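Write out the 3D structure for:
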Amino acid sequence: MKKLKKYLLYALSILLGLLVIAYIIANIYLSSHKKELLAKAGEEISNEINGKVSIADMSVSFFKTFPYLTVSVYGISIEDSLYRVHKHKLLAVEQVYARINPFRLLIGSVRLSNLEIQNGALYLYTDTSGYTNAYMLQGKKDKPKKPQTASTKNLLEKIKLLNFRATIADEQKNKRFDFLINKMAIKTESTDSSKVFEIDKSILVKDLGFKYSEGSFLQDRLLEGKYKIRLLPRKKELRFDDIDFSISGQPFHFSGAFKFGTVQAFELHAQSKNLLVDSAKKILSKKIAKSISIVSVMKPLDVDARISGSLQGGDPLIVVNWTTRNNEIVTPLINLTDCNFSGLYTNEVVKGLPLTDPNSKVEVNNLTGKLLGLPITVPHFLLNNLTIPDVTAQLKSSFQLQELNNLILSDALSLVAGTGNMEINYRGAIDHISPKNSSITGFVNLDKGVIEFAANQSQLTDCMAHINLKTTDLVVEKLSGRLAGNPITITAEAKNVLSMAGDSNDPVSLSLDCKAPLLNINKISSIISRKYPVKPKRGPKRSGALAKSMAKLDNLLSSGKINLSVNADKLVYKKFEGAKLNAQILIDENAWNLQNASLSHGTGTLAIKGMVSEEKNQRFRLNSKITMKDLDAKKIWYSFNDFGMKALGSKNLEGKLSADVNLSLLLDKNGGFDLNSLSGDANLSIKNGKLINFAPLENIHNFLLGDRNFHEISFAEIHDDFKFKKGEIEISRMEINSNVLSLFVEGVYSLTGKTDISVQVPVSNLKKRKKDYKPQNEGTDRNGGMSVFLRATTAEDGTIKIKYDPFKRFRKSKSATDDKKASDTKTN
């Protein structure tokens, strides 16, 4: 055992001695022939590459690759003839190492292997004129090719690059490929038909620009992996199949080929699982990434991408397919959640056209998901032309009506119950939407719906609807339901609804045609009020184009202009019942404008024009012009609670009423009159009338003509002009010519305060009238001759009392008032 150890020590000592001798021989030889060797190496390289070569230094290392010796070359530089112009060296390397077998060196054989290059750069440059420094790699044409020597035969079998930058810049073809090789180890295996390169690499891609002005692919992406590629010299191809490596940590599975023959082209096939779209965008050029950013996908996709093109320049063909589940999509139009779909991106919609954004598309198929909780399907979505995006999309949904609340998030209305289904087809722009560049078609159906309006808490129940979308307009073919318990049918048309989907401020016009067997307007606020509570609803935050659209819808419902046509078989208001209502109404932000409303009442008719506007605390201002013709005076007085008159009620009056009335007054939310706010004027006529048990006239009976029957008085016509002011009715001089007597009346009848009326009874009434006497007015301009004057005023108990006015004090006070008014007018 001791002898074996002794022999091993002898062997190791001899081996070490031989290594030292080899190192000394190599070092002595290199030291004594360094200049010669440097010059010869530079000359040999210059002869091969046809350029200027310089090498700074050489050395031999004993320990770097022990037991092998290492030859180190420093400061290698290669320049072309125009270097001073473009300032780009073909090659600049700080250090190059090659390994030498020391035992072969002892027998006089020098064989270099395992080439290692550190801290260098290769720059292949072509300017706009077509000049390139790549000619240096082609060698000299008149120089015969030398057979490979034993010393260099194995030099390229193993190569390692460390911190090496390789750049190909072609200004003529608008290409730029720039790689920073952190580490690359290449092992070569050769056969008769191919060379196989086993590669272990870590490369930072600075630029991969096939059309550099349009941007670079894989910019600042780190490529890492171990794989094999094959070089096929006869086919002039470089191929790789089913290799795995990562791009900035994201695993990819690659296949592809580079062809360097007559057709110089490349093709790449990449696959990746769970790829985030933001990561995918960083692989693409910034321009393409920006274009497809129109649609954002928030969760990972499974991606299959194919890229192919010419190595001589131009845009590559890109086709990317993907699938995903439970994803989220964000677009300028809508946001979708819980999405399952497949999709496609390509920049070749039409073959033969340039592979650019105008010829690109994003396509999504068989999408299912939710739109703010609303279940939807999108059988097909197509976005064409990424420069000027054009969208074709179909959306379908069946839903509970309440599920639409989170979608519309309206402050004007709430969907309480019911079901629905819809299909919407859109074609047009993705932003700046207007009727000029977009269209929308489809339908929405509602069944057994309940819709509540926030402004007045009224509900439309049993709602059935069929709504059509036609290009730029919305048509409600039929909407039926019950409003305030009464059936109603609505047809409608909204023009220019597409402006609500974009940034356009073009107005949306809405026309409604409402028909009902009965229209009850007793609670006026439930019909007229449009102002919903100031405090908005709480719900999901709205943003983007959809939020703008819903805000515009709220604005239309709460303050937009609406043309409304109303037809009702019967109208009920308090005790009033009319028939055959026909009304044309323009609704704007501030008021309901009754452009024309007509209805019948008994054998007479009413026509109304005016405006109802909402003021504070659910009070409404009515300004109107009313034309009455041949109405039953008794029924009208009854219907409107005697207009607040205590002395003249419906039980006291008969006749045919006609009038032209201009009035303004306030109504409460239930439609009640505020008589203190009454103002306006009227021209009133009651023909073929009777006054029955009319207390003021019966009071006259106590003063005059006691032998006559004042319980039922027939008169020819009561006709006069009236003025209304703050609950008072100013009566101009009015003639009453009846079968009992004639008289003249003027003064103020107060609905809420003190009445003060002068009654002139001509002495000619002393003559009793015959039974066949037909009353006929003679005119208020006559003075009536000798008369008895009475004065009717409001007593403390609120009744009207009549007393003598022997000194005509009413007339004197009226004259003084008229003089004062005339004086004030003259002064002004």
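The longest strand covers residues 673-692.
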